[in-house]
Amino acid sequence: MVPVIHKRGQRTIGLLYYLYGPGKFEEHTDPHLVASWDHNAPDPGRDATATLKQLQQLLDQPVENIDPSQRPKKHVWHLSVRNGTKDRILSEEEWSDVARRMVAAAGIDNPEEGAGCRWAAVRHADDHIHIVATLVREDGYKPDLDNDANRVQAQARALEAELGLQRLNKGDGTAAKRPTSAERHKAKRQGRERTAREELREAVRRAVAGARGDAEFFDRLAAAGLLIRKRAAPSGDLLGYKVALPDDLNRDGEPVFYPGARLAPDLSLPRIRERWSAGAQDAPAAARQEAVRTGPGRPAAARRATASAVWQAVLVFEHGGDAVAAAHIAAADEVLDALAKTSAAHTRRELHAAATAFERASRSHVRAVRGHDRALRQAARDLVQGGPALGRGEDGATTAMAIDMLFFLITAAAHWHARRGHAQQAEAATQAAEHLRAAYQGAAAQPLGVLHQRGRRLSRPMLQRQSALLREALPELAEQILTEPGWYALAATVAEAEAAGHDPAALLSEVAARRELGTADSVSDVLVWRMRRAADLPADASQLPETSTTTTRSTKRGTTTRSSAPGKRRSGADAARPSR
Length: 580
Prior knowledge:
The chain is α+β, with helices and mostly antiparallel strands. Among the domains are: about 1-165, BirA Bifunctional Protein, domain 2 (2-Layer Sandwich), CATH 3.30.930; about 190-275, no CATH class; about 445-575, no CATH class. It is about 50% helix and about 10% strand. Strand 9 and strand 10 (about 560) form a beta hairpin. The longest helix is centred in the last third of the chain and has 34 residues, at about 425-455. The radius of gyration is 30 Å and the shape is elongated.
């Protein structure tokens, strides 16, 4: 339940005309009173003999009864109360009770305290009501409305619990503006799943991801098919921008433009420029390296680079200050947007949902200090420049690797927000992590299945040796890992790392110690991706020669032993079922 106190007004009749009218896009249906200060108040919606003028005169009467010099300059108070999209439709009686409790909580009219203000609650849609009140009490005094916004929010939380509605967290003023009812009705008429505001916000966020300057940002907006209007100072300096969908028109057939700041607080041009201005001094060097690391046809390299950048970023939540952590959270949002934009179809939906959810977690009252997030912003740029990834081979496997690392970064962000009392942001990050779990399942099944089969084909002596090595390196986790389906994939990875010249025990200890594992559904899966990234092993083992998992080199003794892998290839039914 979302209560919103709107700006105070001067004309009661003007607000009543809107509430009882058809709405800007004829979205109002059956406007009528559900409650008021007086049971006998006229209802122009249901009583043919009642007029809006009559209702307005009664509401304004206490204001007219006092000396003009004592009247408030803006005496019209307006509150809307809206249910969530997942909530049930409340009855007339329930909305009536909601209205009475809201005006009591705000200080407009509490019967237990005597004289109150006059008010009326109008319902013109299933999911919300509007309350209009005039700010002079029946006894001529003015109401005490100090802290009215917080009081109606607290009442909303109580009503959610009593009515069995979705429990919402208290807002902090950093959320993006919600679509209006008119925008939602318009989208429904046009057959859109989302409003124009929501589509534009997503398009702008994707255009920002990894961008280095105004020109690139606006080129991306144009490439996305958006209409753009720029606002310039007399000197020619660019001050702001607006965007519109070509097919979102007003009644005059003109595109409906939205300023960036109206899409989200961090999408105004000055706030966007903070992202790339902080890293401007590094741009030439980064540009020289970009052709080597990424570019067309190199999505796998971009994903591996992203996994490394994310791996390092998690340290910030352990050792960095709040402003630095906030910058990394905002940059992680860019990485999610870029990954969702460039990933294969079978993971794109969940990645898109993760990016959409995490967008709320990227803003709080902790102001980000940009510049510390260069590596993550470069990772987002690499993903965009690397182009679309296939859902198989090294592309698909490195996607799983990147998602695995991102899961822990997003989980760390959720914990960071929770410790600071950022309830909405913590919940948003938690939701994003759940979508990443689902995306990981789709991305990791094939590459982990290949590794699982390789591990199953290791000889018994080799597996026994790997088990002993695991118990030596990770004594507290070994027994849990050995019972997981992912153990065989980890055994194959350990063998590959050893064959590549690494000390497997030291590598296992390092990758397990540097980050927490408590939120992982499968510790072995996590260690597989950490080891493959740290040892620079191919994420996709399907193209490797079989000897890579059946040959080991002892880095301590300088000797090489080979184990045969007898037996037939096992069926797909034996493949691991990877999970986060």
